[in-house]
Design goal:
The chain is mainly β. Helices cover 11% and strands 41% of the residues.
């Protein structure tokens, strides 16, 4: 059974004499009001991961992390701001200015699942429903090659502090969803980073294969340890009701690996359209019962005297429908770990985050470039930035804001993220 296909790889490098790099960004001089807190499920009190936190009337926002925590910076010039918090399966929560006061807010979202009725479903078996959805992939998803332009960001934090942030514009060759022998490819067009490693940091965490992995997380195209036919019996499934996503109704199908499966698989939820049985999105994480074994699969390189324990690994994948054809639209991965050095007083928490938003789709000008030109599983973007730097390309958007949502960054970039021709990026 293949496991590595759905994983962000990490490599750790030890600096014998310490290391320091100059930051490629400068401090933003705008005055901000910082709002931070945690978002919980009102019923279960469990964290609501990857919830959207949005400043009403603007394109400013952020996303809660795998602990349900968030930090939103609001320009002090905003008059009487209101913040909207939303997540699939929950009622929106609106916070007004008076609600934003406090050092750390605890916010609870109310679940809003629509009960299943006999009219909607009669003794539907969740596994049979998933198999039907798999059988309809050819009908629901693009059967032609496409070119995707995407905005990608990866970051590494030590506790709350950002150590490194890299951003890139990607071009992806998207193979037909039924093309078993045709694989996706992605290459970097433009990139930049901000490194703030300090001399006290004797260990540097790096993401390996980030852009490549974003495309591999398209589980409809690459079912791997989630939806491969032979893997389906490794999970238990349950239909948890219906939710509305945009203007569509979707089944909520929860899943978790069976207790007798020893390797780390996943727990999560699929959202499957009621009308067409298309996979609209999925959120999943490595099962808590097997998370202690995750580092065996996820850590590619490390110093021999370092112990790494993966604590959480969460993923979110979304699709978008255009002209009755579904396709990849958004991917996010967040991995938390504890790193210890043997026989030394060193123990620290690190979090790696990677996200990608598809910003443009081209069905006419198809470029099936060679695999040798593609980003691979062993590539480290932060080490490759010099080959793709172009300050003129970023223009007025010359500061990396790691705490803003990637959707906000896309809004700020505007037309630069539209694919017109390869010459546009020269």
């Amino acid at each position: 059974m293949r496991y590595s296909l759905l994983i962000i790889f990490m490599t750790l490098m030890s600096f014998a004499n310490g290391g320091e790099t100059r930051a490629s960004t400068r401090q933003d001089s705008i005055a901000y009001i910082q709002v931070q807190g945690i978002i919980l499920d009102q019923r279960t009190h469990s964290p609501v991961i990857f919830a959207n936190i949005h400043l009403s009337g603007t394109n400013m926002g952020t996303v809660s992390n795998s602990d349900g925590e968030f930090i939103l910076r609001i320009p002090a010039s905003e008059k009487a701001p209101s913040v909207i918090i939303s997540s699939i399966g929950y009622k929106n929560l609106i916070l007004h200015q008076k609600d934003l006061i406090g050092s750390r807010l605890t916010l609870k979202l109310e679940p809003v699942s629509i009960p299943l009725t006999e009219v909607t479903i009669i003794n539907r078996d969740p596994l049979e429903l998933l198999v039907e959805a798999l059988d309809k992939i050819r009908d629901n998803y693009s059967q032609q090659s496409l070119m995707l332009t995407s905005f990608y960001r990866e970051s590494i934090r030590k506790r709350k502090k950002y150590l490194a942030v890299s951003e890139a514009v990607l071009e992806g060759y998207k193979a037909p969803y039924s093309g078993i022998f045709d694989n996706d490819r992605v290459r970097i067009l433009k990139a930049r980073n901000s490194n703030e490693l300090k001399r006290m940091d004797t260990i540097a965490v790096k993401l390996q294969g980030g852009p490549h992995t974003m495309f591999q997380l398209d589980f409809v195209k690459n079912p791997a340890e989630l939806l491969e036919r032979q893997i389906l019996p490794y999970y238990s499934y349950e239909i948890n009701g219906l939710v509305q996503i945009d203007d569509r109704m979707a089944y909520v199908i929860s899943f978790e690996q069976l207790p007798n499966i020893d390797v780390p698989l996943y727990t999560g939820r699929y959202y499957v359209g009621v009308d067409d049985l298309a996979f609209i999105s999925a959120e999943f994480w490595i099962s808590e019962d097997r998370i202690d074994k995750a580092s065996e699969y996820m850590v590619r390189h490390k110093p021999p005297n370092v112990q790494i324990d993966i604590k959480k690994a969460h993923y979110l994948v979304k699709y978008h429908c255009t002209d009755n054809n579904w396709g990849l639209s958004y991917v996010r991965s967040e991995i938390s770990m504890v790193i210890r050095r043997e026989k030394k007083y060193f123990r620290s928490n690190y979090t790696t985050t990677a996200e990608m938003v598809v910003t443009d789709v081209d069905s006419l000008d198809i470029t099936k470039y060679k695999f040798s030109e593609s980003a691979g599983t062993r590539d480290i973007l932060s080490d490759q930035v010099n080959s793709f730097e172009d300050p003129d390309f970023w223009g007025d958007y010359n500061i990396i804001h790691p705490e803003e949502s990637i959707q906000t960054a896309v809004e700020r970039m505007g037309r630069k993220l539209k694919r017109k021709s390869e010459e546009k990026y020269q």
